[in-house]
Amino acid sequence: MGVAGERFAWRTGTAIALSFGGVLVLGFDPLVLDNPASLGLMLVSAFFLAVGTVLMRGLAGVDRYGMQAWTAVIGVGPLLGLSLWLEPGGFALLPALSSTAWIGVAYAAVVASLIGHGIYYTLIQRHPVAKVMPWLLLTPVFAIGLGLAFWGDRPGPKLLIGGAMTLGGILVIALRSQAKARPAPVAEEL
Question: Is residue 137 within 8 Å of residue 170, measured between CB atoms?
Fold first, then answer.
């Protein structure tokens, strides 16, 4: 039994592990090992995302916009303090930002946060975590696909293997979910 009281079969667990392994293949770069602090920060961040997701699953009476609001209220203080500490003089550069930078900020605030995270919170509250989380692993696959489409990136074996592993694991989970949702056919006499 999982932390949130959810159960999943060994096939779903294997599919999740396959998808996660695919993301590791996609993202592994020997340069990452040269900066272990960045790797550690990424792992801590992933851990808190996992903990937050499990805790969100148990919340009742908070809609997706309420969740966004509370996340913003709680997060703005520490993030502002870290920005002031780690980026001295950063606020002085705000007037010099281009319109493209401000469009990026607006996109991150509205599309990524309000819409994207709002949908994520809704899915987490309606469906088992084991079925929702693997879909998040598509993020690097889409990022690489956009790099191929718009920046002329060229796929290599690492991209093809990692992408196939990630998509294969998610396909197994999606097909298993769909099979469980469909009722068994009723036999009819001819």
Answer: yes
Backbone angles phi, psi at 105, to 5 degrees: -65, -45
H-helix segments, 5-115: 10-27, 30-33, 36-57, 64-86, 99-107
Question: For the whole prediction, is pTM greater than 0.85?
Answer: no
User: ∠135-64-182 over CA atoms, to 5°?
Assistant: 45
Euclidean distance between CA atoms 35 and 28, whole angstroms: 13
Maximum Cα interatomic distance, the chain, rounded to a whole number of Å: 80
In degrees, to the nearest 5, what angle opens at C-alpha 127 toward C-alphas 6 and 52? 75
Q: What is the pLDDT of residue 1?
A: 45
Residue 32, pLDDT > 70, answer no
pLDDT band with cut points at 50, 70 and 90 for residue 114: confident
